[in-house]
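Quick one before lunch.
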Amino acid sequence: MKRVVVAARTFGKYSQDPVDLLKRHGFDVIRCEERDLPIALKEADALIVGTPKVTAEMLEGSKVRIIAKHGVGVDNIDLKTATRLGIPVTITQGANTEAVAELTIGFIFALARGLISAHLKLFQRREWSSVVGVEVKGKTLGLLGFGAIAREVNRRALCLGMRTITYDPYVPQDEMRKRGAEPVDFKELFKGSDFLSIHVPLSEETRHLVGETELKLMKRTAFLINTARGGIVDEGALAKALKEGWIAGAAVDVFEEEPPPEDSPLFDCDSLITTPHIGAHSIEAVYRMNMMAAQSVIDFFEGRVPANVINREVLK
Ligand code: NAD
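Model of the nicotinamide-adenine-dinucleotide complex:
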């Protein structure tokens, strides 16, 4: 029997279907916490993984033949080593696009109207204070990156009467205009946005792409939203920007270190909203990710090319 090690918080949590699917195809499903992954991988044929780190050392010491990422961002997986060892890595492309886009829109409203602080004042301190926010209609939303999630955010923002601007050097500008978003250069994106939402992958190119310089370009009334990856924003610079009022507020679903340390400077910022990396966590998205990841493993061992292999060179 082939062994699938699962290190993804939500795999099989809300529905047994993905576990049953694997079992029906003859797989033994072994759940695993991040700390136990190095040992569990030694005997695993396949890995379904969410955010835990998968290092070169772990892969070299394992007999894993396929990795199915439960999500789309693969910055936690040593892709170079996986490729060198001939291990295909699949992603659940498109499965959580809607969920992240909807969370982003939720953040826009929460920031615009101070929803979380108003709730906390009343709920925790019985404080009946007047919170006056801004309307989103007529405001400019900047999208850093114009991939799948950004496009869904763009579609929703246009329906809300927002204007959208975007910067993505890898997407043709016609494609942006066709979808109602105005292409701008990197600086203009920061200068011109009332809300700026990040939708790029974490890579060497995008690490600390948003730091002091960029935050200082933003309007003092603007809000920053990061539902992409922690390392893209310099957290020290963001904390400074919030404390010193360079920007009006921020919403952050992802952190450089997860969970963030208790003494993270971000926790001292009143104008910050945080969530514990829940962008992809809708019941619907989780189900789609679960089933796609399970299907990738099944397809591979049944001799079919799995969908969404990102290191396609290993297929040769
Ligand atoms: P995608 O690949 O469809 O889009 C990413 C876009 O970023 C691409 O269009 C690419 O051209 C662009 N890009 C790359 N480098 C850039 C740069 N330096 N400047 C500007 N644009 C750049 O990916 P997606 O599905 O839209 O997801 C985006 C990211 O969101 C993922 O990489 C992942 O890290 C993150 N994500 C987070 C959650 C969550 O739970 N919070 C869930 C899913 C995805």
